[in-house]
Amino acid sequence: MNTSTRIAVIGLGAMGGAMAATLHKAGWDVTGFDPSEAARTAAAQTGIATTASLDDVAGTPYAVLSLPAASIVETTVPRLLAVPGTVAIIDTTTSEPATSKQMAHLADTQGAAFVDAPVSGGRDGAASGSLSAFVGGTDAALAAAEPVLLALTGGKYSHIGGPGSGNVVKLLNNVLAAANLVSVGEALGVAKAYGIDPAKAAASISEASGGSRVSANMYPTWVLSGTHDSGFSLGLMARDAALAVEVAAQIGESPALLAAVAGQWQDALAALGPRADFTEIARTVAPAITPAGAPSTTPVS
Q1: Does residue 269 lie in a domain region?
Q2: Residues 25, 101, 156, 170: which is the catalytic one?
Q3: Are 244 and 96 in contact (CB under 8 A)?
Q4: 66 & 124 share domain
Q5: Which residue, of 162, 182, 208, is where some domain finishes?
Q6: Which residues constitute the domain of residue 209?
């Protein structure tokens, strides 16, 4: 069993930075990499050593990836493995199944483990070490990655199956959340049209069979309040919804409802832009219940 506590965190954005801080507080010897000087500075302020060169952390025994796209995972992993010493790479990116299969094979040929472990729980979960993770990988790879997974999730992870399976289930989770954000918004819009307080409608629905985290937490906290500060972008959710439908098509499935939802998110993306908070979808499906109302009719890039 490897007892090293040296770990690299690749990607120090909202999620990666919070995970790096959690690992640091848990006693890991963390070095963070991000091409953004601002991200590195923010991480350094929490006591984390940082570097502007990915090559500086190649061969670190453990590595956590928190990256914006599968294409970046594909270019990052070979560089990390270019120097001997890697024990396990834990990829928390919401990536693509084919990419994870390729990276797991590459790692295995070099005596290292790779697991796809996309996470849920947002920046608060990352900061508190209470994320949930959908893990894809072999039993041996999971065993190698487990110390890191325990630090990030407190044990709240599910071993879904082989390489890539964690990505599949995470994408399905996200497209279901995307559908729920649309449907709850539309329902609360109907309630308001009848003169019913959307907050009261959301609270009562949340105690019944139609309730969900979206109705109980997301709408009251971020939509009805008008704060829209969840920390997760509309651009990323639109990407995930589209990718979930694409992954389904790759295996011959045609989920009509999920495809329609993915289309609504693309419409919202065009109206609000990729940097809008993902809860701002409500402004396109039920503008009357949001303080900011409907977005401008001018497309946002």
Answers
A1: yes
A2: 170
A3: no
A4: yes
A5: 162
A6: 167-289
